[in-house]
Design a protein that fits this description.
mainly alpha; 6 helices; transmembrane
Length: 187
């Protein structure tokens, strides 16, 4: 695989997951507005960060992409559905889910930082900055989450499975675009 393809794949993973995260926080925020109003400010801030990350990595991805992945709307809808479903299990479920997903995100961003350090310093620096937000989200969630209940353990496992499914889909669901040389639009 060429270096540009590897970079595109890494960016596609981060970009898709950030859009999914905007959906998750959107879903959590809907539930919080109905039942847990004291959570709204924190969830709003987390949602804002994820939206900024999505746009930042979208700009980087546009520099490399030779394929189209699932439209961003589908990632967001999946995230919203997940966020609503988990939110229905209550306040603790939202925090357990957030802590679990952010743990995985932080691991993935650590891998991405090593990958980009030698390949693209601008993306590397962006990953490091974004990782600060994600670590903050994880710490906030861990302060509130109680993992000592069976349902919390199930939610943590479900969050992990959903996060890795999103990564798998981001890697494998793409459509190659015609090269610009052979494109009917350039003739």
């Amino acid at each position: 695989m060429s270096q540009n393809k590897e970079i595109e794949t890494q960016l596609r993973i981060i970009h898709a997951c950030e859009k999914g995260a905007t959906g998750v926080y959107y879903g959590h925020r809907i539930i919080a507005k109905l039942f847990f109003r004291d959570m709204i400010t924190t969830l709003d801030e987390m949602h804002r960060h994820e939206t900024e990350h999505f746009y930042l990595f979208g700009n980087f991805l546009n520099q490399y992409k030779n394929s189209v992945v699932l439209p961003s709307l589908l990632w967001c809808i999946g995230g919203i559905f997940y966020g609503l479903l988990i939110g229905l299990f209550g306040r603790n479920a939202i925090w357990v889910s957030t802590a679990s997903i952010e743990n995985i995100v932080n691991k993935e961003l650590e891998v991405a930082s090593f990958f980009f350090k030698e390949r693209n310093i601008k993306i590397y620096q962006a990953v490091l900055e974004i990782r600060e937000d994600e670590i903050s989200h994880q710490h906030i969630a861990l302060e509130h989450a109680d993992f000592n209940y069976p349902i919390a353990k199930m939610i943590a496992k479900f969050a992990q499975q959903c996060a890795y499914l999103a990564k798998f889909l981001a890697i494998h669901l793409k459509i190659s675009l015609p090269s610009k040389k052979n494109s009917p639009l350039t003739d």
